[in-house]
Amino acid sequence: MHPDALPMLELMYTIRFFEQRAKELYREGLVVGALHLYLGEEAVATGACTALRTDDPITSTHRGHGHCIAKDGDPGRMFAELLGKETGYSRGRGGSMHLFAPEIGLLGGNGIVGAGIPIATGAAYAAKYRGTDQVVVCFFGDGAANQGTFHEGLNMAALWQLPIVFVCENNHYAASTRFVEATCVPDVAGRAAGYGIPGEVVDGNDVLEVRAAAERAVNRARGGGGPSLLECKTFRYEGHCMVLHDHRFRPPGEEESWRCRDPVDCFERTLLAAGTVTDDGLEQIRQRVREKLAVAEAFARDSPFPDPAAFQAEHPRGNWQCVR
Ligand SMILES: Cc1ncc(C[n+]2csc(CCOP(=O)(O)OP(=O)(O)O)c2C)c(N)n1
Ligand SMILES: [Mg+2]
Q: Whose CA is nearest to atom 6 of ligand 1?
């Protein structure tokens, strides 16, 4: 079994339980702004980010909580950002889509679809130019794979042989639009051939498969072998965001068939079958994660909101008022 198997499972529980709490906090009316949940996609962030060093940069998306947690982000500062608190990762100014933590290599979430791709490409160029041996991971969705930034970014990264791994999280929907209705090829990974780089389809619900593919791509990039494209096929259980419940657009049985291959359940079964952990051991890890998240949530709830006067000083042309 992979030596990081149990830490990876703990990260997946942390993402899952964080998202479940975030959903409840939203329903309580405590989350400021939009909320896009990563439930069902936990194996992608976990497998990819655990193949990285802390100083390896990543770019995230509008659905970025899992990326931040898998990069060892602090759930307290994450909850605080969601709640619009001064102690949040963007001091309460950004909300869920704008977690920014350069100290762990997180170059930011982004509300603009595909906008992380040029940022990641630039970060990879910076690493090469400065002669560091950092590798960048760029997360984006299947919807972003049809943006111009995708094609420009891959072409430039390939041309300059930049140290970057493009990770497409293909959850088969861009908001309510199905992947097959918006894309003329069956696999995003196949587009890598157009830029002369390796492309691989990965089972995005199998954390060990994601981790192995990410390790190969990261090692290649760190060794000077240039960029690659991984397409992780996965599924999101929730609606696109908390105000767009697009389940009615899904074919009957689709969600159920993905739930049968739930990434957390599957990994638990694999670890139990291999004798890596017992049922009691699993419950202990879950309990530890629940306790850690309870402390994190309490920290966020107890934290102050930003002072509107500070907003005014930062942006004198605005007219900032406290809405609470
Ligand atoms: C440039 C741009 N176009 C459209 C939108 C509206 N929008 C926000 S998320 C989204 C869907 C993105 O789908 P995908 O890239 O597959 O990511 P997922 O939500 O599935 O994780 C759209 C169309 C946007 N934010 N930015
Ligand atoms: Mg998508």
A: 113
Write down the residue that tokens 């309460």 correspond to: 92
Question: Where are the alpha helices (H) located in 173-262, listed in sequence order?
Answer: 179-182, 207-222, 254-259
The answer to whether residues 191 and 166 touch, using CB atoms and an 8 Å cutoff, is no
d(CA 94, CA 118): 20
User: Which SS3 state, helix, strand or coil, does residue 220 take?
Assistant: helix
Residues 35 and 62: beta-carbon distance below 8 Å: no
Q: What length is written for the chain?
A: 324
The atom number, within ligand 1, closest to the CA of 41 reads: 21
Q: E-assigned strands of the chain?
A: 58-59, 136-141, 164-170, 173-174, 177-178, 199-203, 228-233
Look at 107-111, 189-193, 231-235, 240-244 and tell me which has the smallest mean pLDDT: 240-244
Distance 48 CA to ligand 2 centre (A): 17
Q: What is the pTM of this model?
A: 0.97
Atom 19 in ligand 1: which residue has the minimum CA distance? 174
pLDDT bin (cut points 50, 70, 90) of residue 147 is very high
